[in-house]
Task: structure prediction
Amino acid sequence: MRVSDAAAYRGRYAPSPTGPLHAGSLLAALGSWLMARQARGTWAIRIEDVDRLREVTGAAQAQLATLQAFGLHHNGPVLVQSTRDARYAAVVEDLLARGHAFVCHCSRADLAATGGRHLGACRATGTRPDPAIRLRVAPGTRIEFVDAIRGRQVQQVEVEVGDFVLRRADGFWAYQLAVVVDDGDQGITDVVRGADLLDSTARQILLQRILALPTPRYAHLPLLLDADGRKLSKSEQALPVDARAPMSALRFAWQALGQAPLDADMPSDFLARAIERFDSTRVPAHDIVIAASHNSPVTGGA
Result:
């Protein structure tokens, strides 16, 4: 089964510049690129450097160079979140003015009784000089959507998440705000990304609705895990992919996406055939445990 052709399809890949691309990063990039190209759509790149405390100098440039070396070419200019402070501020000011957001002085200790969730009225024991700004989640808020890979998803946002942060207490913009605003401004129709972000999707859909933004289609790809069940990016096995020898990493990512073997020796040939043969119904709906050698994935039901 092919990804449906759609002239208006616009996908994206949005790495955080916290280090070089590894096998898990490549899997997400290849999966999102293939879905966009098979739908005859465009594929944008966004550098998600909203958390500047975690940014590694030079990582963004190295990531972009690696994608180019692998033949994963993008359309249009690269959007960089750290250039968009004014845009995010304007959105938050609008939410505050309309009563959808509020200033929160709660500390982690204040929220301990609710497991770290902010539910309803603030529990702050004092006025902090560095308050956060949260989105007000109405009682009974329930978000349901169908993920193209993981199926029907339901989240009781008020109970499971609570009022969530739009601007952090350290002054940085929260991921949930930045990704929603950026996807809306970039006209993203399809979000294809790792399953570690599946839990965030309901919050993003809620914020899209409040901001009167369209909701993209979602597809969450399997994560690569080490033998201890840790996401590869947090594991000692997370060696960077070698941009000088892309074929082994491309074959590995293709196999991890559940696809039938391809016979090709050059990235350009491999990717051309991959666009034709990619079958989204074969993508695993579970995460993947990989061997320490990185040579072959071992599927598991994580």
Q: What stands out?
A: Helices lie at 23-38, 59-69, 85-97, 157-160, 175-186, 201-210, 246-256, 267-277. The longest strand covers residues 42-47. DSSP finds eight helices and 13 strands in the chain. The domain at 85-174 is CATH 3.90.800.10 (Glutamyl-tRNA Synthetase; domain 3).
